[in-house]
Amino acid sequence: GEPSIVDGKCIGCAKCVKVCAAGALEMFYTPEELELLKQWEAQHGAVEEELDPAEKELRAKLAQYRGVWVFIEQYQGEAAKVSWELLGVGKELAATLGVKLSALIIGHEVAHLCEEAFAYGADQAVVLDESVFKDYRTKPFTDAVCHLVEKHKPEVILMGATGQGRDLAGAVATIVKTGLTADCTGLGIDDKRNLMQTRPAFGGNIMATIMCDRFRPQMATVRPHVMAMPERKDGSKGVVILEQFYLREQDILAKVIETISDKGGADIDIAGAEIIVSGGRGLMNKDNFALLHELAVELGGVVGASRSAVDAGWMPHSRQVGQTGKTVRPKIYIACGISGAIQHLVGMQDSDVVIAINRDAEAPIFQVATYGIVGDLFQVLPALTRRVREMKG
Ligand code: FAD
């Protein structure tokens, strides 16, 4: 039916307009009301919001928090690319807010990362360089970040939605008692300096914009490859803020004894690949993935998979593309025998070129495909591989 306003409840603040995820609400004033509003403002000045003392106190507290921080995730002194991607979006947020962008660097012998952070846009680097931070461990990193947050009071903290980032962000948010939005796909600032954190919700069927307007810092994680890599400007200068946080090794219960890399396919980073040949349930069995490997080898790409293929045990989870797998942004994504469920699409729809091979012309994958081949993959794939081989001579 016709929407109606509950008299005495609606104060015309228009907050509902901003928070409606579907953008379904609008605020209308009749020409007469607009005229009255103008006259009133001409006499009294713009309407000042009346605040109760608790609200005033809250706003004063929030106002103490300034600046955008990006946690620079590193492994043995090498930064994760997602951290630089976050500096790119962080720079835009900081510019809108009119504040500095800081890189938060925690580790051992990590001074060189400051230069890199400045090259990717950071104005300053907040650094903790001590031997207890050589390997990532939840407790010491959490304690250190919480200490620095309390000291510097940043208003926004961004971290990569990686194993480390997810672990650390959740632990820090719990202790500093603030909100955290995981796996954001879009970040912006509203007219009240709040971070607008957009992410897919309800299985990817709607995009929700989440706000944390009563707590600081506002924390968000973003998956690798969701944000574009900023341009690197070597030689950029910034301010290094060298911090100290006293922790004794003997007080830390978790010890890193050995690091073993997963050779079961996890060593191949599909998230960073330029060409991905992905297979789904249409491949029928594990052995048939050899067809994808052959084409991938010819193209210099890697093999990915849908969740159905992973659940069937045909490929390891590290190769899964989608909402509960990896987000990829290759130059070419070839989807073979994949129907194109929304949970798969959210992980690959930003690829430059999508080529879909499916025998069902109605499959949703064709809606995001640059080129669609309706046909039997067992005929199309070998033909495609043959043709690529011929072209390479
Ligand atoms: P199907 O949907 O069964 O499609 C198989 C396709 O192969 C069909 O379109 C068929 O026409 C085609 N085909 C069959 N034989 C041939 C042939 N010989 N030649 C050509 N085409 C052929 N899915 C993901 O992929 N990644 C995720 O991260 C993910 N996360 C999820 C999270 C949640 C919370 C939920 C509920 C689901 C998630 N899913 C995810 C599952 C998703 O909903 C789909 O079930 C899944 O993507 C389907 O995989 P598929 O396309 O391989 O299989």
TrEMBL record:
Role according to the record: The electron transfer flavoprotein serves as a specific electron acceptor for other dehydrogenases. It transfers the electrons to the main respiratory chain via ETF-ubiquinone oxidoreductase (ETF dehydrogenase).
Q: Which residues constitute the signal peptide according to the record?
A: none
Q: Could you tell me which PANTHER family the record lists for this protein?
A: ELECTRON TRANSFER FLAVOPROTEIN ALPHA, ELECTRON TRANSFER FLAVOPROTEIN SUBUNIT ALPHA, MITOCHONDRIAL
Q: Which family does it belong to?
A: Belongs to the ETF alpha-subunit/FixB family.
| Highest taxon above the source species | Bacteria
Q: Which GO terms describe its biological process?
A: fatty acid beta-oxidation using acyl-CoA dehydrogenase
- Residue ranges of domain 4Fe-4S ferredoxin-type in the record: 1-30
This entry's Gene Ontology molecular function terms read: electron transfer activity; flavin adenine dinucleotide binding
Q: Keyword Electron transport: yes or no?
A: yes
Spell out the InterPro entries in the cross-references. 4Fe4S_Fe-S-bd (IPR017896), DHS-like_NAD/FAD-binding_dom (IPR029035), ETF_a/b_N (IPR014730), ETF_a/FixB (IPR001308), ETF_alpha_N (IPR033947), ETF_asu_C (IPR014731), ETF_asu_C_CS (IPR018206), Rossmann-like_a/b/a_fold (IPR014729)
Task: Record the organism.
Answer: Citrifermentans bemidjiense (strain ATCC BAA-1014 / DSM 16622 / JCM 12645 / Bem) (Geobacter bemidjiensis)
Its protein name is: Electron transfer flavoprotein subunit alpha
Tell whether DNA-binding is among the UniProt keywords.
no
Q: Which UniProt keywords apply?
A: Electron transport, FAD, Flavoprotein, Transport
